[in-house]
User: What shape does this take?
Amino acid sequence: MGVSITKIELTNYRQYKKVTIDFERNINSHLHILKAKNGTGKTTFINAITWCLYGEEKYLADSENALNLPNEKTVENTNENGNVIVTVRITMKDDDTNQVIVITREHKYKVNFNIISKNKKTMFEQEKFNIAITNLSNNTNSSIIDNVGECNQVVDTYFNRSIFDYYFFDGENLKNYFTKSKAETIQTSIFNISQVTLLENTKERTNSLAVKKSRELNRKKPSETNYFEEKITLEKDIKARDEANKKLESDINKYIEKKVKADEILNNYTPIKVQQQRKLDLEKNLKKNDEALVVLRNNQYSFIHDYMILLRFYPRIKKTYDMICYKEEHNELPPNINKKEIREIIDNHLENCPVCNSEIDDKAIKYLQDLLESTSVSTGTSHQLMKIKSSLEIMINQVSKFEKEKENLFNTEKFLKIERKEVEEELNGIHSYLSNYSTDSLEKDIAQAEKDSKYYDDKIQEARTTISQNIAFNKKDRDRLNDVEKKLKKEEETKNAKDELSVQVALLRRVTTAYENIKQRIMLVVKDEIEKSTWRMFDAMIWKKHTFKSLSINDKYEISVLNMNNKEMIGSLSATEYMALAYSFTLAIHEASGKNCPLVIDSPLGRVSDENREKMATELLKVSKEKQIIMLFTPDEYSSEVKNVYEDTAASIIELCLSEDESEVEGV
Amino acid sequence: MSISKKITDEITNLNENDELKKLLLELLNIEDKGNHRNNQLFENEIKEHIKKTGGAK
Assistant: This one.
């Protein structure tokens, strides 16, 4: 069946002090009629519904100069500083979801006393808005929604606020239903209720994501460096150097072997070389010995020459010397004095001795005078003898050294001869040893061995240097290879990310296209449905059968009604035709929304002439078999023609009456 | 609000594989819930779909 209002409870809402109206369908229809005289509270009843749903009294003539919301009588009966609670609660049943939805809006007011006007006034304090949803299928507890946004969302699901007047229909004000500004609102609302807007928003989101991902993809540029080629080159170089080093290690072993052989040869020749060197040293020693012997021979000649004369005259020299010594010992020789000098000291009375500078006193003068008198012999002979004595002493001393010098010379000669003999013997031995080897071959072999040893030594050094260089290069290259491999890994990650992004972009574009196609299809289908449905109902409601040919709705949801000559008639429609069109279009929109929601109509047939009133009432009755319709009539409007149609078929007919003091709706 | 039958019918009739149809419905449901993290949720769904299907049609 769809959605229906099962109960509306009004508490302290304007003239509805405490009213509850139930709307239960009967077997014939889901049509409910509320009859009330003008001013009783028909429009207030619709306002109570819109206030509950939207928080606004949509049909209030002048909200600024209207009475306050709380029921006047209740306010009067409330003490000062007391509270008045205004509540409207709508209970609905959704057959599609098998849910009961209870929408409650409540305003709390504080009552004050105005001293000047001597009246009680109310002051708004607090609003409560909540929706309780009970799922009848699983018997679970009600879920309460008290968030305003979520509550509004639920309300819009059933009674989209932007097209509220297509749910709460004002039969007296039909001109607004087909204005251009209205068309735009209708289009927006239809898109909302048929979820075209949802499709568009989803499409926009997938599209913007595709654009974002595509930009992200374009930012991921491929690397300009060919790391893969560099990696291959590095690996090749490293491998080549490793292999070269292996070969060099092997070469080094070979060179070591060859060097060992060359060194062995050199080691074998070492004693010969030592002997050769020894031979040279000995030959030098022999030469020195020869020179020393020549010097010795000369010394010997000089010795013989010197001592031959001295030794020949030695006896005479000795005798002369002894004799002089004897004379000297026996004072037979005059003193060696200078008479002339003594005389001069005496004659001149010199104070100091010219020889020893000692003081010459009278005693010294006396001694000198005595010495002159006692010295009778000439001192010249004595002086000569002393001279000879000296020379003789030298000669005698020289002769005394003869034996020692002779022995020294003999010893030197003996030493040199022994030394010469030893050197000659050793040289003979070396000559004998070396005579076993050919000199030419020996020199050649040693030279070759030395050359080989040096050559292989150089080769080993060279190979080791190359190995070290290769190791150093490989270390550098391995570090670089490590970096390159990291970069390659990063590149691979980037490539994978790019691939993933590409797939995402492709998918998002595919999804965007799908949504666009679905949206276009839905828009077309919905418009087509509304168009067909509007025409079907309009054609059924209108008594003229030869005037109207067709009805069309453009993409902007502007309606055209064409006559049989295909001429536009929308501006020329009568009030009845206009109302029929409004009903048809409204019901078509209800159909398109996918929710079969109630339709509340104030003055449903007010603008319809008598002859069409019955026909239209009948058509609305047909609609009410599948859809809940609540109609609000004045007694005049609820004419006999209408009564005939609805009296036995309507699910409920309720008459609203005011109390005697006209302060509240009393009879229901 | 649940996705209307018209839309689910259109999606069902699309010449696409079942996984993509599920994805189309799922994204609509996310958008319908009006979550401020929609972009992130969309991306998650897209990635999940690619993971399941490999991204191929």
